[in-house]
Every structure is written in C-alpha cells, then in structure tokens.
Amino acid sequence: MYFDLKSSGLKTDLHKDICEGRIFESIYNKYSQSLHDYLYYKYGDRLNPGDKAQDAFAKLWENCKKVTPEKAKSFLYTVANNLMLNEVKHQKVVLKYQTESPKATTNENPEFLLEKDQYFKKYQQVLSKLSEEQRTAFLLSKVEGKKHEEIAEILGVTRKVVEYRIYSAFDVLRKELDNFKIK
Amino acid sequence: MDTNVLIQKWLTGELSEEERKAFDALEEASFYKDIVEDASYFKASNFSEVNDFATFKDKYITETASETKVIQMQWFQPVLRIASVVVVAFGLYFAFLYNSNVQVETAFAEKTTFQLPDATQVTLNAQSEVSYSSNDWDDNREIELKGEAFFDVAKGAKFDVLTDEGTVSVLGTEFNVKQRGSLFEVTCFEGTVRVVSNGITKILKAGDDFQRINGEIITGKNRAASPSWTNSMSYFKRLPVTEVFAELERQYNVKVQAENISQEQLFTGGFGHKDLDSALKAVSEPLGLDYQILKDDMVRFSKRE
Fold first, then answer.
1. ipTM of this complex > 0.95?
2. Does position B165 have pLDDT exceeding 90, yes or no?
3. Residue A103 — very low, low, confident or very high, per pLDDT cuts 50/70/90?
C-alpha cells in the first residue's frame, strides 16, 4: 500500500507532490514510526517523541511546496531533531524495558527472577550511560533491525562511523554486564 | 584472531564461515548474543507510539485546510450529485439482484482451507466464521473474522481483516489472527502487518506476535513458520486456563467443567488435536490438575489432592 514516489509520473512538477494528500499520507505511513523510534532512543520518552514526530510532519505539510519527496526524509529527521534540541539541554535518558507480567512467572525460581530483574536494571543503567550517538546507533541496528547504511543516512554520518558506534556501545554493555554472565 | 576484531565483525555481520566458528567457540559467545537479543526488551514501540495518519490528520491538517481543496470541491460537487444517483441505483441493483456476500463457517472439531478470489489461502480453525464480498474483491480486500484463521495473502493492494476487537491490515503476506471473546492475538509469519486495536497501532514484522487480553497488551517473538494449529497442535503462551479449556472444547467438541480451579492461572504449552486423552494429559500435568472423562462429550478438571 506504500506509494512509490519515483513512479508517480509527475517528474515535471515534483514540488507539488507532497502537497497532494495521498502522497503526503504515504510519506507519513512510511516514516512516522521510524522517526518516532529514532527520537525515542535518542531522547527517551519524557519529551514526547510521538508529538515531536507529528510536529515535524505538520512542518513538512506547511512547507510541502518547498520540499521535494526525495528530501522529505532528511527534512523530517532534521526538523524533529531540532524541535527536541530546542526543548531540552541534555538530560539523562532512561529507557523502559518490558517486564513479563508478574503473575505469569509463578513457576520460576525467585532467585532467578531477582537476578533477571537486576540484569535488566543494570542494562537500563548502561544504556543511560552511553552517549546519545552510541545508544541511538546500537538500538536502531539491533532492536529495529535497520541497515547500517540507513542509520548512517539518518544520523548524517558515514557507515564506518555507525559501525564504530554500535561496536563501542556493545563494548560498554559487555563489560558492564560481565557479572551476569552465566558461569 | 583477536576477540575484539571478531566481535566487531560479528556486529557488522561480516563474519566469514571460519570466523563464525571461531566466534561461536568463544566462551562468551552466548552471553554476547543474549546482550544483543535482550536489547529488544527496550523496543520503542512497546512504550511509545506515534499516532496513525487519520489521528494526525484530525489534529494537525484540518486546521490548515489548503486552498487547493476548496477549488477542487467546486467542480467536484455536481459530479458528486450525479455520482450519488448512480451509486444508489447500483446499490439497489446489487442489494436485490446480486448478493455476493460469501460466508464460510466451521463447526466444532472442524477445520477448512479455501481460496479467496485472488488466490489468497485462508485456513479456518474450529468454530470460526469469515465473510467477505466476492464481486468487488480485487478493489476491496476486506474480510470479517470471528474466531481464528491463518492467512497466506496473495500479492496485491491493501488487505484487511476486521474483528470485533481490532483490525489487522496486511502490508505483506502470512499471518494468523485470533479473536475469541476479549482475547485478540495476531502473529506475523512473513512480511509485515499493521494491527489497530483500541486506538493503538502496531506494526508487526515477521516473527512478531501481538496479544491483547483484558486490555493488557503483550508483544513477543515467535519462531514458527506457520501457526501450530494448522499442524493440528494448539499452543499457548501465558494465557489464562479458561482460554485453554475453551480451545479444548472447540477442538474436541466437548464440554469442559473446571472444579476449584483458579481462573487466573496461566498456561504455557500445547495439546494435539488427534487424541483427547493425551490432550487432556498435556493440559492437566503442568497445571497440577486431575481430569476425568465423564461422558463422550463431557470432561472434568479438578485440583489434585
């Protein structure tokens, strides 16, 4: 159901494209969730990544005559990032983790549960301690499964830099979580 | 080879066959894999979501309705008038002369597989029902579901499955939908699907599953290639025993009585569809229950003394 922008056939007048509701909708469907995920990993949930992502799309709509479809993605990421930066001077980012609901685990050994809980608490701490760059690259790659090229494009750096950030994030994680290694 | 280099290559997905062996031989290989896998517990969409386009549009776009829209409507209106007459005429024609609504139902202990007009395969589990309209199927791939079904969707435009508890839109190909009472479960096996349930939108990729029971949403992973029930097994992941009993009733056409059993108790595991006795064993053993087959169509579970 995604609309292929390249085949839209309006090559002579590309600037009008985004103003067309259907094309704008396809751009929204294509990018809104990953834009949101990026903001979430980078800034946490306190500054409401969902609203910021939508604000960026509203800005895109206002500027639909000036932005070509090819530029839409980087326009969105830049605007959303700026909107975040306007609001905050760096604060600690604590990402939530999904716990299995407690009633479900009645048959598990309490010691095991305690250890698991401590493990995820520690994991959370380490993620907060990572730099924005490391955390964003690592989570976009390993949780969202994005390709390194795409992350590089989003973050505006080269692929090598992305790979280095993923590695250095992982390196901190494995050192800090060393105590939880199963013997 | 240096461990750090191995790790680096592993993270980038550039290990050669030989290096992979060396990596797997590392004492800490499984620990490393766990770290990467456990990152998904922090997945953004489990905690925070962006509104779908419709909500976004209501909130932002209507305020700044553009000029082009107004101009469009002026010539559009007379066309709409003519169109509405045509639509009414066609509507009457189809309502009285051309009823193309297709309904497929299964009874207790029955499964069936059939094809939709576009060669989409639907496998219907016991006591389930789907209905769709066959004449405009290619333009409007919408199917209503009560119960449980597995879809292998043919390539094409939008494909929607409507249930009382939410809508599943297909962006890709193979998925399972289960809606029994307030339980709503979607598993995606191939491609991508979008689930809209109670105002929440989730995109599932291959291997993701989504479960909403009594308002609580749980998402998880799944490695199977097709739902277990299509291979005559029912499998449950942390579901209340009542759901398990209900499925037993559907698969074997029996009535299940539960004596002094906490309804809250959760069950993980499965049972086969071929032999009632072993199915009952499979359910009762892990829960520490006893069972009794009272009549041909009556089964009782009770707490073990």
1. no
2. no
3. very low
- Is the Cβ pair B35, A170 closer than 8 Å? yes
Residue scoring higher pLDDT (A177 or B90) = A177
CA B227 – CA B254 distance, rounded (Å):
23
A2-36 in b/e burial notation, b at 16+ Cβ within 10 A?
Answer: ebebeeeeeeeeeeebbeeeebbbbbbbebbbbbb
The beta-carbon neighbor of A143 closest among B31, B43, B49 is B43
Q: Which of the two residues, B225 and B273, has the higher pLDDT score? A: B273
Residues, chain B, total? 305
Q: What percent of chain B has pLDDT over 90?
A: 0
Q: What is the pLDDT of residues B190-238, one digit of tens each?
A: 777 788 877 777 888 777 888 888 777 777 777 677 777 777 788 887 7
Q: How far apart are CA B287 and CA B260, in angstroms?
A: 13
In CATH, the architecture of B232-303 is 3-Layer(bab) Sandwich (3.55)
pLDDT for B8-29, tens place per residue? 889 988 888 888 888 888 888 8
Nearest-5° angle of CA A57, CA A63, CA A68? 90
Helix axes A159-176, B3-12, angle to 10 degrees: 120
Among A42-46, A56-60, B225-229, which range has the highest average pLDDT? Answer: A56-60
Distances in Å between the Cα of B41 and the Cα atoms of B110, B137, B141 are: 38, 40, 34
Distance, C-alpha B202 to centroid of its chain: 12
Residues of A in contact with B243 (CB under 8 A): none
Cβ contacts of A83 on chain B, cutoff 8 Å: none
Contact call for B42 and A127, based on CB within 8 A: yes
Q: Does domain B103-228 have CATH number 2.60.120.1440?
A: yes
Long-range contact pairs involving A2-11 (C-beta distance under 8 Å, separation at least 24): A2/A26, A2/A29, A2/A30, A2/B171, A5/A69, A5/A70, A8/A69
* pTM for the structure as a whole: 0.47
Q: Where are the domains of chain B?
A: 3-97, 103-228, 232-303
CA B52 to chain centre: 19
CB–CB contact A163 B53 (8 Å)? no
Instruction: Report which DSSP code applies to A143.
Output: T
User: Closest to A174 (Cβ–Cβ): which among B32, B53, B169?
Assistant: B32
Radius of gyration of chain B (CA): 25
Residue B5 has pLDDT above 60, yes or no: yes
Mutation test of the interface with chain B: which of A127, A140, A143, A181, choosing the one with the most B Cβ atoms within 10 A? A143
CB within 8 Å: A143 and B46: no
